[in-house]
Amino acid sequence: MTTKRILQIAASLALLAICVRFGAGWIFYATSLASSFFAVALVSVCIFHFAVRRTLYDLLGVLGTAAFFAYVDFGILHYPVRNVAWLSFLGLGSFLVLALRLTWEPRANAKLLALALIPSFLFMSSDWAAYYFLAYTEKLHPRVFDLNLYSFDATLRIQLPFLIGQWFQKLPWFRSIGFFFYIGLPIIIAVVYTGLLLRNTRRGLSAMTAFLITGPIGILFYNLLPAMGPIYIFQETFPWQPLSFAQVHKLLVEPLAFPGPRNAIPSLHMAWVILAWWFSRGLSPWRRALAALFLFFTFLSTMGLGEHYFVDLVAAVPFSLFIKSLCSFESPWANAIRLRGIFSGLGLVGGWFLLLRFAPKAFLFSALPPWALIAITVAICLYLENSLDQETPAMLNSIAESDAAVATTPAV
Fold it and tell me: Domains of the chain: which residue ranges?
């Protein structure tokens, strides 16, 4: 037996042991596998998997692995049955089968499998680790600036989170659709990334890098202006009892001590779907349409569920521009369009943070200035992103021509 074969067998046994350890462990089951958010993140591995490897054997392997974990957890260990756990079992099975495929696949065919497995694992891991980073952020910042964000929203003369929240309460089916799109974020990320991966590897890697770093960088921003969302501050009075405009005038804006995640501004949910929408340009119509649906319903659900103020979504637009420009690897770092996107996005986010921190009630005299400020911010970001996107095909063609020239250069 060759050394390579021994290493393959050892790696396969290690993968099996790790998956069984996590799939059958009570703590991981209770905190992750039975969680709706993590279950959707885990089952999205199936999208990565079957985008690059659609075979009957893979499908049977995934279904068989899922059935095995269901039997162990429910039949032998008698864990409480949670329907979402089935999604987790499918995702865990897909991860195991894809990892085993990569272990045994010939080197010539392994690249595409690796480009599916590694990003799916990193995104799934970052989703799981986010809980711990947010818990640490809460310890660092016991007080939150929700009243600052709420006060600015009030200057618009229409409190969108409360209005949409009332629609959700009156129309339970509408709320269910919104909640599905809210927790289904990993699905559109997987759909857009795999679509790009199959068309242009370099473009796909830029997209996945942007998706992956949005979370860690976003958490850093959470520490600059920690806030939670109206559902945590208004609690049972949300969405039916917003403060009147006269009450907002008299409101003392000060930090409040409330327990809960500090993950309001910028809205990373909104940032991810904006990035998915931008990166979906040029993909098949159904992928583009799905990205549009996620963009629309995420806009509604982030506010209607009480997780975000409207200004959180506004700040997500320049934040998304900053992330996309940062990850536009098709363009050199010195490219003027890319640099404008990076510094403009970062500067606009910083400007909004300063306004909200030190002058959230500056526009109480009229609704026109804050709406104008929002419109200008969005317009600048859309213009710069469009300029960056138009630059990308030219850069990709230049890279392709350069690679082709190198490939055809005769050896000396």
Answer: 1-139, 141-396
Say how far apart CA 305 and CA 316 lie, in whole Å.
17
Angle between helices 268-279 and 310-326 (to 10 degrees): 50
Q: Is-contact 70 26, C-beta < 8 A? A: no
Please measure the distance between the N-terminal and C-terminal CA atoms of the chain and give it in whole angstroms.
Answer: 40
Q: What is the DSSP letter of 141?
A: -
185: which residues sit within 8 A by CB, 6+ positions away? 40, 269, 272, 273, 294, 298
- 3-state class (DSSP) for residue 294: helix
Q: Which residue has the tokens 């098709």?
A: 330
For 202-229, how does the pLDDT look when each residue is reduced to its tens digit (9 = 90+)?
A: 899 999 999 999 999 999 999 999 999 9
Say which residue the tokens 């050892």 belong to. 10
User: For residue 1, what is the DSSP state?
Assistant: -
Q: Model-level pTM?
A: 0.92
- DSSP letter (8 states) at residue 81: P
Those residues whose C-beta lies under 8 Å from the C-beta of residue 210, and which sit 6 or more positions away, are: 275, 279, 323, 324, 326, 327
Q: What is the pLDDT of residues 258-268, one digit of tens each?
A: 999 999 999 99
Residues in contact with 278: Cβ distance below 8 Å, sequence separation at least 6, in sequence order:
320, 324, 385, 389
Residue 143 backbone phi and psi in degrees, to 5: -110, 150
Residue written as token pair 């050199």: 332
Mind spelling out the 3-state secondary structure of 308-322? CCHHHHHHHHHHHHH
